Every structure is written in structure tokens, then in C-alpha cells.
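Propose amino acids for all 296 sites.
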């Protein structure tokens, strides 16, 4: 934390600005993911498979170049990696399905709701009730979610169902992070992404086949873009920069995701946001920032 504090107290150095730019670029890249899921002519779950599969060689290369081991992993650690990978695969499947139905801004917000779940997990582990700021985050999250889901229901029942899928994805992502907390420290971020992808890809492929989705695309462009922006740029840059910033700064940067996604939804798909929508998004976004900040 001292290293993080020193960096954030001296944001005038070129390296500090570079790291901050990388953090913002990572969030913008991740925010573009829902757009490419919509454009893909494969099914949404199949798009999740290609998203991981196409980026896998890059992750393996980075694990090798950084000296992170891909073999000789203890069985207990491998079990938790497998369990986390299953959770992550289900997270991607739920989120990609939700993206097909709801507005992109909602998908980005609710897909990141895992920060709130982690905050509640912290209450359980520490065995204490929420403090003032945490109560505020809970209130903002509940009211903001109610506003957004109410507006979704006004549009259509399918839009509301999309919201629920994205909320489920946020919950699953929180379980994924909790499950792999120790494994990430043991084998490193790049190696972990390799193993998670290796376990999650067959699951996503099987789910896509069971759902009867088209798997082999006619147009590779959206899927290559999805893998590049979401996995290589988004996840890759986050692995590099996360250790340099406090959770509060990371939480504030996360708010660029729903903003970029909402603008993309408006510009590309004509998804108009009313003042009530914006209020709901600001409240949920504020809750996510508070929740992420309390983890620091």
C-alpha cells in the first residue's frame, strides 16, 4: 500500500501517467466487449469460447516470458483453479446472453456488480456490520438497480431478463475472484489465465452446443476484436497495472466501462437513455466505486 500511495501522490511522473493511461485504456477496451458480442454471428456463449480460445496463445506466451510456471502445480491449487474456471465460464455465458437482451450500459454496470458481492463477503469474513459509507453503497445499489430494472421492464420483459442474466454474471464473477485469490498469488496472473481458459473453453463450447448455438462464425472480425480488446488489451493491461493503484482508484476507473458501453449502445444500436436511466446508472456506479474503494 505504501508503494501505491507513493505512486498516486506523485502522478506527475511520465511513468505514473503511463500507468494511469493503461488503466483507463484497459477499462475502455473491456467496455467495448459487449459491442463485439452483439456483432458476432456465432451464438453469445460460443462467442465466450472464442474470446478465450483466441487469446490463449498470447497468455501462454506472456506466462513463459515472465517466468510463471504452467506445470508442477499442486493438486489442491489445481482443484481451486478448475472450480474458479467453471465459475468464470458460467459468468461469461450468463453475461454474453444478457448482453443480447439488455442495453449495453446496463450490461456493463450489472456485469461489474461483483464488487458489491465482494464487499458483502468482506462483512462475512470480518464478522462486522457495514459502516456508514458501506450502508450508503448498499442503498445506492438497491435504489439504482430498482430504477434501471424498472426502466428495462418498461421497454420489454426480455430486457429485464437480460438485466437478471448480467446480475447473475456479476455474482459468478465475484465467486470466481474469491475462489482464485490464493491461486493467483501462487502461480501468477498470466499462468492463471492460461489454466482458467483451458478449463473454461470446453465448458463454454459444450454449453453452446447444448443450446444449439451456431459455433463456427461466418465473419471472424467481431470475435477477433472481442478476444483482442477484452482479453489481450483489457485483461492484459489490468494484470500489469492493478498492483500500482489502490482499490479506490481502480473502482473510479471502472466507472468508465458503463459510460463507454452506454455511449456505444446509443451510437451503434440507438439505445436512448432517459434522465431516470442516468440517475440509476450514477447510483449503481457510485455504489461500485465505494465498494471497490473499501477493499483497499
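Proposal:
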Amino acid at each position: 500500500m505504501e508503494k501505491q500511495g507513493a505512486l498516486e501522490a506523485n502522478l506527475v511522473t511520465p511513468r505514473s501517467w503511463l500507468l494511469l493511461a493503461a488503466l483507463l485504456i484497459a477499462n475502455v477496451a473491456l467496455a467495448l466487449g459487449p459491442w463485439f458480442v452483439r456483432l458476432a454471428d456465432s451464438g453469445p456463449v460460443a462467442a465466450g469460447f472464442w474470446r478465450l480460445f483466441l487469446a490463449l496463445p498470447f497468455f501462454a506466451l506472456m506466462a513463459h516470458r515472465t517466468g510463471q510456471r504452467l506445470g508442477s502445480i499442486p493438486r489442491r491449487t489445481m482443484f481451486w483453479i478448475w472450480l474458479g474456471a467453471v465459475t468464470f465460464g458460467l459468468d461469461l455465458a450468463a453475461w454474453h446472453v444478457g448482453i443480447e437482451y439488455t442495453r449495453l450500459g446496463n450490461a456493463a454496470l450489472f456485469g461489474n456488480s461483483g464488487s458489491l458481492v465482494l464487499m458483502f463477503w468482506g462483512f462475512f469474513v470480518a464478522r462486522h456490520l457495514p459502516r456508514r459509507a458501506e450502508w450508503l453503497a448498499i442503498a445506492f445499489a438497491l435504489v439504482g438497480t430498482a430504477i434501471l430494472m424498472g426502466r428495462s421492464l418498461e421497454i420489454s420483459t426480455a430486457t429485464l431478463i437480460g438485466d437478471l442474466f448480467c446480475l447473475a454474471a456479476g455474482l459468478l464473477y465475484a465467486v470466481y475472484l474469491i475462489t482464485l485469490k490464493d491461486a493467483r498469488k501462487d502461480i501468477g496472473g498470466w499462468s492463471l489465465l492460461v489454466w482458467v481458459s483451458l478449463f473454461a473453453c470446453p465448458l463454454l463450447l459444450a454449453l453452446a452446443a447444448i443450446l444449439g448455438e451456431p459455433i463456427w462464425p461466418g465473419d471472424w472480425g467481431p470475435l477477433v476484436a472481442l478476444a483482442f480488446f477484452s482479453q489481450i488489451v483489457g485483461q492484459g493491461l489490468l494484470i500489469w497495472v492493478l498492483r500500482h493503484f489502490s482499490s479506490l482508484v481502480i473502482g473510479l476507473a471502472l466507472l468508465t466501462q458503463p459510460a463507454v458501453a452506454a455511449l456505444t449502445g446509443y451510437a451503434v444500436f440507438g439505445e436512448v437513455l432517459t434522465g431516470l436511466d442516468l440517475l440509476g446508472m450514477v447510483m449503481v456506479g457510485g455504489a461500485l466505486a465505494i465498494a471497490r474503494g473499501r477493499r483497499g
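Residues 42-214+248-294 form one domain. The chain is about 80% helix and 0% strand.
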